[in-house]
Design goal:
Length: 177
């Protein structure tokens, strides 16, 4: 709770400082929803579709492993009473080993997917920064904040639609209205 109070104090002081700056120099602030923009620009849509295909391929591997685990578990349950204690222990050990491999594979796949997603969107975000710089210069904004860090902002300060329109004009050759 103390951290929240301290954070709130810092934000209030920060805003008070910007308030004075805004009065003194006609300081303008805009907000942008970068996540939404990423999903709406043509290049982002293409990256999303490409990534979806990669996820589907990886999901097939996970599903195959899950099927194998289910089959081993079912075999153990069905044959459990008929197996000798040594044979049952061996089957349980095999099941445990397969389950550990499954968990390891799932974690590796998750890490790979996260890295691939980051690599796919990084160039788009870099281009968005250039477009945002142009929007800020053109609109006279002294500060552009990402909506994920802003608790509230009136819609009139949101430049996301302009970002999407300009991005597509600059990088996909499509003119949007």
């Amino acid at each position: 709770m103390k951290r929240f109070g301290m954070g709130l104090l810092v934000v209030l002081l920060f805003c008070a400082g910007f308030g004075r700056m805004a009065q003194a120099a006609d300081f303008k602030i805009a907000v942008v929803d970068l996540q939404r923009a990423l999903l709406e620009v043509e290049e982002g849509k293409q990256a999303k579709e490409s990534f979806r295909k990669v996820v589907e391929q990886k999901q097939k591997v996970v599903n195959e492993m899950e099927t194998k685990l289910t089959r081993l578990k079912d075999e153990l349950e069905k044959q459990g009473m008929m197996l000798s204690p040594d044979a049952k222990a061996k089957k349980e050990e095999e099941l445990q080993k397969e389950f550990m491999e499954y968990q390891k594979m799932a974690m590796e796949l998750q890490t790979q997917l996260k890295q691939q997603e980051t690599e796919a969107v990084a160039p788009i975000y870099e281009k968005m920064q250039l477009v945002l710089q142009k929007i800020a210069e053109k609109g006279g904004y002294g500060l552009v904040l990402d909506k994920t860090t802003v608790a509230y902002s009136p819609l009139k300060y949101d430049v996301t639609n302009e970002l999407v329109r300009m991005y597509d004009e600059m990088y996909s050759g499509k003119k949007k209205r």
